[in-house]
Predict the structure.
Amino acid sequence: MPTALTISVKETLDLLDGSFLGVSRGFVEGQYALWLGSGISRDRVIGLDGVLAKLIEFLRANATADADCAYRKALEEVVSMAKPSPEENAAIDFSQPAINWPCLPSLLTRLWKQYADVLSVEVGTEKLDYLLWVGLDFSSTFASQDPDAEHLAIGMLALEGVITDLATANWDGLLEAGMRELGWDEKFYRITVTGQDLRGPAAAAVLYKFHGCALRAIEHEDDYRPLLIARAAQITGWMSNGTFRVVRDQLRALAQRSRTLMIGMSAQDKNIQHLFGQVGAQQGWKWTDQPTPIVFSAQELGTDQKDVLNVAYGQEVYEHNRIAICEAACLPAYGKPLLLGLLLTALAAKLQTLASDVHAPALDAAAHQAIASGIKRLRDRVAEAGNGDRLDLAKRIAAGLARGRFQVENGVSLPGTLPYFPIDSRPPHQMKGMPRTVATGLREAAAALGLIGLADLAVEWTASVDDPTDSRSGALRLTSSNATARVFFAANDENITSLMDYGAFDEDDPDVVVICSRKVSDRQQRSPKARLRGGKVGPRYLAFGPMAADAGSLADLQYNFRSEISV
């Protein structure tokens, strides 16, 4: 069985389709808020173990042999917190870099859950946040980082309207960097530290950075450096500090109105546990509510996570049902596979909703379900193909969807990486039957994707994606034993002309299939040279909307569709 660490994106999808189907559906419907911890940033920003190692080395490098040296005293205090054994003490040499201490990994493991106490250690008469700001070289450590797969996936989910609220104890600016990499201003997150920023313009999602914001602290040190929550006294004080009253009230309300999915967060900070305890005391969620109200991305729940469940559901309820409560709350997949799995699930659900609205009078519920399974097939193929490099998978999902969306709806195919183009800014259940999707051509494109997926499942061809930064790349490439074809989608005939004007393809390209949502005019009327090709095969134009409307059954539609594509 895979673990939360080794699980693939496809295996995560199996979890979301299986034992965690309720959580998956609830998430796609926007029922969950994300609570995010350092685990989603550990591959981009120094993690807690790295923070602790850096602080130990900072103190060691500045310590002298003088017994009254403030750095030496602080270093000895930090080391003593780890309770080293006599053998470990004997191996610690302050004259040698900490990385050379044989026992350093063991010390860091023991200090991991005491990070707030370590950062509380005072260095002489320096400011109380001296270790954080100077020892950690805060402004350099957190100035700028490149986003990882988690941050890109979260950005796409926010732009798709599936996530509207996020709470994080992280200081870093990786979520903002992810939004920028997707081609959108970071203001598409309404970022708030104290709650005052909630009075600003609307955004795709509200981002509560309740332990402070590194980027603002670096840019506006006087205002935001004091708001960085790191030391034990600060975490305790946050619960009653008037500066944070608005954001406290908002987070308490968020935990009350939205289900919680914690990713990369151990929930060890007492202010987090206190918030959920207040929700539990105010007739909050019942553990039997469906979908599960509080879920952790974890291999197994730690004591702090169990404490959250205990205070949220009530001690008596938790004590009598703890095994079932913990099983329902533990989703064994860590951030990268889980967030990519949730993103693919949400995108597939939107395409399935669009496909179900296509005008095809003869298709019954079973036919629409089959088309939905074809979309799911393509979803799974994407997961399998991209598991080896999750960051690249996130980038290719963003770039590939952007290119396909610009082509089908706008008739545009520019070179390079295009801004992320959401399928819709609403969750899928709010898209059903909406008149605005009629003109976009997305209903027909989604249904056609379902048929492509069914043929892929039947091994009639293989669907793949070319380089999504290439302006001559279609939405898909279909390959059989006999031929290969670039597949473009277009909402209408005018967009086909526009795609040719952009150089996506021309009338002499024999490897192109254009699936149009409306009727297609005779291309020779527009291109005199097409009449002079001497029988050379050019693009195949398929008017999918009329084909679906006239189909007598799913089998009829599938036959006509495959015949027209003829790959």
User: Anything to note?
Assistant: The chain has 25 helices and twelve strands. The longest helix spans residues 335-356.
